Amino acid sequence: MIPGVRVGHCTVSRDPDVRTGVTVIVPSRLPLHAGFRVLNGNGEMTGLLWVRESGLLTTPIALTNTFSVGVVRDAVVAAVDPELWALPVVAETYDGFLNDIAGMHVTREHLFAALEDAREGEVAQGCVGGGTGMICHGFKGGIGIASRPAGEFVVGVLVQANHGRRPRLTIDGVPVGRELGPDVVPLPGVPEGAGSIIVVVATDAPLLPHQCDRLAQRAVLGIGRTGGAGEDSSGDIVFCFSTAEPSGAHRANKELDDLFYATIEATEAAILNALLHATTTSGRDGRVVHALPHDRFEEVMRRYGRAV
Length: 308
Hints:
The chain has one domain (5-303): L-amino peptidase D-ALA esterase/amidase. The protein is globular, with a radius of gyration of 18 Å. 27% of the residues lie in helices and 28% in strands. It is α+β, with helices and mostly antiparallel strands. Strands 4-3-12-11-10-9 form a six-stranded mixed sheet.
């Protein structure tokens, strides 16, 4: 994502029907100024009341499946220090189409493994960690990461993409979903628009908590640019934190526009990366979700005059 922030995964994949995992985002120091926004609330992210009250992120962030939030949250407490007070930030999206989600196959050891795996720089994307069983706009989705410069600062975005309708998928203004058509990957039993997206925005710009809220709001525009709409059955939650010293000098509100633009663009790019890095996946009851077909995607983009 950005310097000083590590990302780690633990992928839990066992045949025939376990396709799940945990992804963690670990700042090099805590606490940090933080904020959040909710596009549609059919989802869960623990710890938000204290973030709203205090304006602080006090633990690593973890992403997993809907039914594993509890065990992962408890494991974060243990990993931080069981003797310390903590309200961890743990978020979820639903992977029950490909994964035996009711089997609750994620354990505390998987959270510890993800923390052990956490590193800066290039990390795996697509069908890894919390994104292992996720579906995005009718294609295989998962974890996507992107960053964009914002003047002297950087904005990094990580998504767990499990949302969207096929006909709405739009990349750089191109109606990719409509061009590829509904026949590429039929998903019987999965209502269009069902699912969720979790977005985590990090920046090294020195921001106050309310300014983190404002950046989180702009990530919603990145979701919208790719065709996400926050449907009724979708849980679309954005969390934002600043790695700058909380006691340091802060940006004036009027200086935030470059950060807004970078957040929008990095969110759009992270969703695309989740799609491009994902691979065709089989899972529960023999179900298969196909990856975005790169050759057809490139052909569509070229036909609309876009560089690939």
